[in-house]
Write a structure and sequence with these properties.
heterodimer, B: mainly beta
């Protein structure tokens, strides 16, 4: 079954404590992306990766890092989380970068930073 | 910059009615459009897409209409069911290699 998985699904942490949210896909997709979703603001792209070892900033990259060492995994790293990073996070993948390549989303990670 | 928006943040319908969810986009060069459904506690789920060279595309109980003249996209759901209750997003892409731009969503509530 084609899947995008995220872990953890829920996380409560404290300011400044480094954390990593993992994303894994089994569809051999080249493109992966991270979004945050906030009430009234919709989905905003944090970072994306067009292929292994290639990552680029999205619209709201401040305070986040990513890596793409292998095709299937695209972890999101918060080196020093702050309360304004409390949000719902989604990983998404798409096959390539064609206009009609659809994005498929993971189940989401709800992060609370106290 | 370009943005994709929705006309109404909420829509309430009775079970069995047809639902129409609207979306306006501002980038006349947008070439590809997608509708997503997001149920509570889940990630957005692909429903249907349409390319700019088409006016209409039908799926199972859903139809997407594209009016490029007024830059308007709509999702029609036939015989709406309680399981259709969710937030619906439109998204657009201008050209290959560019990011999807998402609207803020319309919450559809279906009552029995």
């Amino acid at each position: 079954e084609a899947q995008v998985t995220q872990n953890p699904r829920y996380l409560i942490t404290v300011t400044g404590k480094k954390l990593t949210v993992t994303c894994s896909q089994n569809m051999n997709h080249e493109y992966m992306s991270w979004y945050r979703q906030d009430p009234g603001l919709g989905l905003r792209q944090i970072y994306y990766s067009m292929n292994v070892e290639v990552t680029d900033k999205g619209d709201v990259p401040e305070g986040y890092k990513v890596s793409r060492k292998e095709k299937r995994n695209f972890p999101l790293i918060l080196e020093s989380p702050s309360p304004n990073q409390t949000s719902l996070y989604f990983c998404a993948t798409q096959g390539g970068t064609a206009v009609t390549d659809t994005q498929y989303f993971g189940p989401g990670t709800r992060l609370t930073v106290l | 910059g370009e943005s994709v928006g929705l006309h109404l943040p909420t829509l309430s319908v009775q079970e069995g009615d047809n639902s129409i969810i609207n979306c306006a986009y501002s980038n006349s060069a947008s070439d590809y459009f997608i509708w997503y459904k997001q149920e509570s506690g889940k990630g957005p789920q692909f429903i249907i897409d349409i390319r700019s060279n088409m006016d209409k595309r039908q799926g199972q109980r859903v139809t997407v209409l594209l009016n490029k003249t007024v830059k308007h996209l709509s999702l029609q759901i036939a015989a709406t069911q309680p399981g259709d209750s969710a937030v619906y997003f439109c998204a657009e892409r201008g050209q290959a290699g560019t990011a999807l731009i998402f609207g803020k969503g319309t919450t559809l509530s279906v009552s029995s």
